[in-house]
């Protein structure tokens, strides 16, 4: 099964920006938004009231009021809800902000919001303040200079407080990314601290070379440690073994290719670092609970649904009070 040109274009969704600041802000009630990604944009959701369910690569989250979720560049995602909600959605053009943040293409942001409001961390309160401030300036048609400055401050804060994370899995081996908070000193038995350069250096190397026959001993040699030591370190630091991490990275690439190209499953297996389609299927089922072919059919069916993107403007009177609280609570 292949994707026609129209479906592929829908999957890589292009954002229309009205401001030269290359940021778009919307307040909406989201009913459904089929699977898609943004190859050159960061998307941030903030749930003002109600709830939404999001599919982010292989993980599924139910977002409650006050939650903030970030979709990074090329993150395949879907949004749906069966009840009333108001969602603040912000899109940021990564191409435009590359002139201010040279490494923006390598940045990965993660937000981990607890249920309920009493335990909201100070950095989450500040993040919601920055989002609410940007919404206010956008709504008031502030200058491009002001919008750009506030967007730069938002990216800078995300880089400082929302870019450190570890992986975890539930009983079904579904991956879950957990943010390391500012107060976390030792999140794992291995003593991983925020800004642990070694683990992110290792993760970057794997993400750059996953298509190759990558082995743990190569990484151990690069880091100047034994395989056994590095194996324990990766497991403690990332929350999964080296082989699991490599498998997940390869399957995420396979999921993107399945949804956005007309390559065969055999071709995608090779492009993702697997020896053949049988090996791809084994690993893919581990993370996505379905075969590559089933996943492709679901994505195509989702994109071709008659309903497509369904949303309406949010009630501004109700959302204004919540946004004002976000502005006042920090």
Task: Looking at this protein, list some descriptive labels.
12 helices; single chain; 8-stranded antiparallel sheet; alpha+beta; Arc Repressor Mutant, subunit A; disordered N terminus; two-stranded antiparallel sheet; 330 residues; Jelly Rolls
Task: Please provide a written account of the structure.
By secondary structure, the protein is of the alpha+beta class. The protein has 2 domains: 8-167 and 304-328, Jelly Rolls; 186-297, Orthogonal Bundle (Arc Repressor Mutant, subunit A), CATH 1.10.10.60. Helix content is 43%, strand content 20%. It contains 12 helices and 10 strands. It has helices at residues 5-11, 94-97, 122-139, 144-161, 197-209, 216-223, 227-238, 242-260, 265-271, 277-288, 292-303, 316-328; strands at residues 23-36, 41-50, 52-56, 59-63, 68-71, 77-80, 85-93, 165-169, 175-179, 310-313. Strands 1, 2, 3, 4, 5, 6, 7 and 10 form an 8-stranded antiparallel beta sheet that branches. A two-stranded antiparallel ribbon has the order 8-9. A hairpin with a 2-residue loop joins strand 3 (52-56) and strand 4. Helix 3 (122-139) crosses helix 12 (316-328), helix 8 packs across helix 9 (265-271) and helix 8 crosses helix 11 (292-303). The protein is globular. The chain starts with a helix and ends with a helix. Mean pLDDT is 86; it is low at 1-9 and 182-195.
């Amino acid at each position: 099964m292949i994707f026609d040109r129209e479906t592929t274009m829908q999957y890589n969704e292009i954002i229309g920006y009205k401001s030269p600041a290359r940021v778009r802000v919307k307040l909406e009630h989201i009913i459904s938004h089929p699977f898609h990604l943004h190859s050159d944009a960061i998307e941030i959701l903030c749930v003002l009231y109600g709830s939404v369910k999001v599919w982010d690569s292989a993980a599924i989250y139910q977002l409650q009021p006050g939650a903030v979720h970030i979709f990074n560049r090329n993150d395949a995602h879907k949004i749906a809800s069966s009840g009333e909600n108001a969602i603040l959605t912000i899109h940021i053009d990564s191409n435009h902000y590359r002139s201010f943040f040279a490494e923006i293409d390598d940045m990965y942001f993660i937000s981990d919001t607890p249920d309920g409001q009493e335990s909201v961390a100070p950095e989450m309160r500040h993040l919601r303040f920055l989002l609410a401030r940007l919404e206010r300036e956008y709504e008031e048609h502030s200058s491009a200079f002001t919008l750009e400055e506030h967007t730069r401050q938002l990216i800078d804060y995300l880089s400082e407080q929302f870019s450190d994370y570890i992986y975890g899995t539930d009983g079904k081996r579904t991956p879950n990314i957990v943010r390391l908070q500012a107060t976390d000193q030792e999140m794992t038995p291995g003593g991983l601290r925020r800004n642990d350069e070694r683990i992110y250096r290792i993760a970057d190397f794997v993400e750059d070379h996953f298509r190759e026959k990558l082995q743990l001993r190569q990484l151990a040699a690069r880091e100047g440690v034994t395989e056994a030591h590095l194996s324990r370190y990766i497991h403690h630091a990332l929350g999964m073994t080296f082989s699991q991490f490599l498998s997940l990275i390869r399957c995420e690439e396979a999921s993107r290719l399945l949804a956005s190209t007309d390559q065969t499953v055999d071709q995608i297996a090779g492009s993702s670092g697997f020896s053949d389609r049988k090996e791809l299927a084994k690993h893919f089922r581990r993370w996505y609970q379905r075969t590559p072919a089933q996943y492709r059919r679901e994505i195509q069916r989702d994109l071709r649904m008659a309903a497509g993107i369904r949303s309406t403007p949010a009630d501004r009177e109700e959302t204004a009070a919540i946004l004002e609280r976000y502005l006042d609570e920090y």
